[in-house]
Amino acid sequence: MIGMLKSMATTMKHALDGEKFTVQYPEETPEVSPRFRGVHKFSQERCIWCRQCEKVCPNDTIQIVTDDMRNGEQYNLHIGQCIYCRLCEEVCPVDAILLTQNFEFTGDTKDDLAYNKEQLKNVPWYKDIDPLASREPDREGWVGEGDGEVDYQ
User: Fold this and answer.
1) Nearest-CA neighbor of 96 among 35, 33, 138, 54?
2) How far apart are CA 1 and CA 51, in angstroms?
3) pLDDT, tens digit only, all 153 positions of the chain
């Protein structure tokens, strides 16, 4: 009983101090950490179809279909299955996959959460924040300059 009274006192103390803990979403947009992992963004022009992202995915979220010449025909991602571990982004040698800070996606059925390469290419940036800028500083050292422009936008 004493524990319950202590916890209620703590709750009332925080409720009456005037600080806000919630955001009136969707009227106000919440602050998201720069390292937040949201919906994937895919660049078909940068992708070399090496299938490393498909192999490293722990729960088979990514499916890639290629033809006999290893040209990519389909790139499918099931957002509903994704655990946002960022392994696909880390293993990609040409930065064809980026996890954006966009968390605003919905679907009525499971099939609505299965995205193809065109849908992923059209995923908007969240508040125009480029995820390449929020990566760890040593990433540019091994990706290198001069690999071409980023064509996600």
Assistant:
1) 54
2) 58
3) 888 999 998 888 877 887 777 788 888 888 887 778 888 888 888 888 888 999 999 999 999 888 777 777 788 899 889 999 989 989 998 888 888 888 887 888 888 888 888 887 777 766 665 556 555 544 454 444 445 555 544
Task: List the Cα angle 105/131/119 in 5-degree steps.
Answer: 40
Going across the sheet that includes 62-66, the strands are 62-66, 72-78, 114-115
Residue 133 is which amino acid? A
Number of residues that make up the chain:
153
The CATH architecture to which 32-134 belongs is: 2-Layer Sandwich (3.30)
CB 95 within 8 A of CB 145: no
Quick count: other Cβ atoms within 10 Å of Cβ 48?
A: 12
Q: How far apart are CA 40 and CA 80, in angstroms?
A: 12
